[in-house]
């Protein structure tokens, strides 16, 4: 993934999850994914959420491959 444009699938679904999710560990992942799915750069979103870039790449891969089940 490094060096290529990061793409987050199903942004609309992420926004719906954010409205109803109660688990803090899932909420931070959804916030991060929403940030990079918008106009904020990957590194900036990692810093905002207080995570390493390697963690960010993992979260994107988990979401893109497994959706909600992938990040929970």
How would you sum up this structure, described in words?
With 72 residues, the chain is mostly helical. It has one domain (14-66). The relative contact order is 0.20. It has helices at residues 11-20, 24-37, 42-49, 53-71. The model has no long low-confidence stretch (mean pLDDT 91). It is globular and about 25 Å long.
**How much helix is in the residues?**
over 70%
Reported for the largest beta sheet, the result is: none
Which of globular, elongated, flat, extended, rod-shaped describes the shape? globular
State the total count of DSSP E strands. Answer: 0
Provide mean pLDDT, rounded.
91
Concise summary:
The chain is an all-alpha fold and 72 residues long. The protein has helices at 11-20, 24-37, 42-49, 53-71. The chain has one domain (14-66).
Features:
71% helix; 72 residues; mainly alpha; 4 helices
């Amino acid at each position: 993934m490094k060096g290529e444009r990061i793409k987050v699938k199903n942004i609309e679904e992420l926004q719906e999850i954010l409205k109803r999710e109660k688990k803090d560990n899932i909420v931070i992942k959804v916030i991060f994914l929403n940030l990079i799915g918008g106009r904020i750069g990957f590194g900036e979103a990692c810093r905002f959420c207080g995570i390493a870039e390697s963690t960010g790449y993992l979260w994107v891969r988990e979401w893109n491959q497994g959706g909600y089940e992938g990040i929970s």
